[in-house]
Amino acid sequence: MVCPALLFRLGHVSLCGHFLLLIALGQSARLLTTASPTAWRNWIPPFCLLAAAVLAHPYLFVYAAAVLAAPVVQAVLHRAPRPWVAIAGFLAAAVAPVGMFRLLSGSFGGSGGSYGFYSMNLLSPFWPQLSGLFGADLPVIDATGGQYEGFNYLGAGALLLVLAAACAVARSGRLAWRPWLGLILVLGGLTAHAITQRVFAGHVELLYLGWRPWNLVFGVVQSSGRAFWIVGYAIVLGSLAILARHMSSARFGQAWLAIVLAAAVALQLIDTTPLRHAALAGADRQSPTETMPEGATLLTTLPACLRAGPAQSLADVLHLAAVRRGMRLTVFRLARDPPAAECARLLADGLDLPLRSGEVRVFLDLPAGSLFRQAALGPDATCRSADSVITCAGGLSLPPGPRAPPGADLPTVSAPTLDISGLALDRLLSFGWAHDRDGLAWSDGSWATLLFRVAPQIAGAEVTVDLQLYALAPKPDAVRQAIIHIADSAPVAVALSDQRATRVTLRVRFADIADSVVRIALNIPNPSDPAGRGLAAPTRQTGVVLRSMDLRVVGP
Question: Which of 278, 313, 345 delimits the end of a domain?
């Protein structure tokens, strides 16, 4: 764990298979030296490698395939006999995994129009960043806002090896580069792809070749800065090979080689210390639920979409502990966050819905305005609090600890109750609402929920809920679409006229009133910014304003 690029990438699990890149380099070197690329059987190992790489991540496949093309380039340049066998062997080894990827994924992907944004800075391999030797607070060189994808600092130890190899070559005056010409050309091409058509040295733009045709050709591999990963490994391995060749033949060469290697390893370990600590942050942290309660079978951590930080590190620790115990996970960390609307839905469900059998629900870093109420989690919920982390379980014995503040109880509504508005309405609002100075409730984001109990005398009845909603559509005189969910009933789609009050009637079945609790969730796709319509509002993303609610009994 001394490669800075790999340590920086540990959050993206499927891209951590750098061993595939190293194997690709080894197989390419074998085909360039001891195994002929014009023999069909020698392309079987590359095919197996590329098949595994395309299943791990398409980027790893692309870079592995690129270096495996080096023997083909070499065979053509040196006019080897039967070069068509090398070309056909490579195509067979590369095209079959591509077909497998297309079959399994259903897509080849597409260009997002951002080629040149997620690029590598010219200084990235050599300029210290997040360095244990030169400063852990040194930022990643990023001139575009996306060049963190091109973080390729080699590290002080690797740079020492490169410098020592350069000195050895300069002293001897010879370098056997011709047998490696194909690989050198391929690595140069990968470096150019990593830098892209927008060339930056630090924050100085040295060259810009425009958007076309580069994005049309290379746009499908948008995070182009990653292409230097395999180049960095080749530079370090090539430096080691040069040192081994030149020093082993010199007097006291092996002793000097050992000294250089020892110094390089020590420098690399020290220099990557901040990256290692950041990547493994929280691994030794004692979590409030490190000992899961007996009988726990499911873990939920909220919010589901967290950025890097202490809360995300703790979530990772909890997920690992749960998986080791054979528990299932409701949410887990992915390379990319889901859409904001899905993140909001998961948090709203976690705050409003009762705990499932065997579930442990952990609230790590709730956003401002989120309303935690233990009563919403079910009658047998038990909650503990430690270091601002709330852990709840239903029907399970949590480890000893201080009880979490339970929050407000759920309000009770009898029927009929007409024109619930103003302050009386506020107590029914649960997730995703913001109040203006007049006391009106504006939906804040893509999800907003109402949560309340029904009085015991109507707990066995069916009721109707009338919501008076004032809608804000994306454009004037357009229609605001909303989807309303009530328990397990089929979602109700409603169309609301722009800047008009609409009365929406919902029938709540007896089966939807579990433990006398009614939950109404409004899904409002693509909320609008009221400021763009000249409206003063307490939120920048809204869809409806809730004016009032009526509740009526319609059946026993």
Answer: 278
* Helix (H) and strand (E) counts in the chain: 15, 18
User: Angle formed by the axes of helices 181-195 and 18-32, to 10°?
Assistant: 150
> Residue 440 domain-assigned?
yes
Are both 71 and 174 inside the same structural domain?
yes
Q: How far is residue 226's CA from residue 17's CA, in Å, rounded to a whole number?
A: 13
Whether 342 maps to a domain, the answer reads yes
- pLDDT tens across the length of the chain (556 residues): 689 999 888 767 788 899 999 999 999 999 998 888 888 899 999 999 999 999 998 899 999 999 999 999 999 988 878 888 889 999 999 999 988 888 877 666 655 667 888 899 999 999 999 999 998 888 899 998 889 999 999 999 999 999 999 998 888 877 888 889 999 999 999 999 999 999 999 999 999 888 778 777 787 788 899 999 999 999 999 999 999 888 766 666 788 888 899 999 999 999 999 988 877 654 445 454 455 788 899 999 999 888 767 788 788 888 888 888 899 999 877 666 778 889 999 999 999 999 999 999 999 988 877 899 999 999 999 999 988 899 999 888 888 888 999 999 999 998 788 889 888 888 999 999 998 877 789 999 999 999 999 888 776 778 899 999 999 988 888 899 999 999 888 899 999 999 999 999 999 988 888 888 999 999 999 999 998 888 888 899 999 999 999 999 887 6
Q: Map residue 119 onto helix, strand or coil.
A: coil
Q: Say whether both 78 and 197 belong to one domain.
A: yes
CA angle 258, 259, 265 (to 5 degrees): 90
Torsions phi, psi for 278 (to 5 deg):
-65, -40
Distance CA 398, CA 305 (A): 25
Q: Are 523 and 416 in contact (CB under 8 A)?
A: no
Contact 85, 43 (CB under 8 A): no
Quick check: 144 and 117 in contact, CB under 8 A?
A: yes
Instruction: Give the residue from 49, 5, 16 showing the smallest Cα distance to 335.
Output: 16
**Shared-domain flag, residues 76 and 212:** yes
Other Cβ atoms closer than 10 A to 539:
19
Q: pTM score, two decimals?
A: 0.68
Same domain as 84, residue 225: yes
What is the Cα–Cα distance from 326 to 310, expressed in whole angstroms?
25
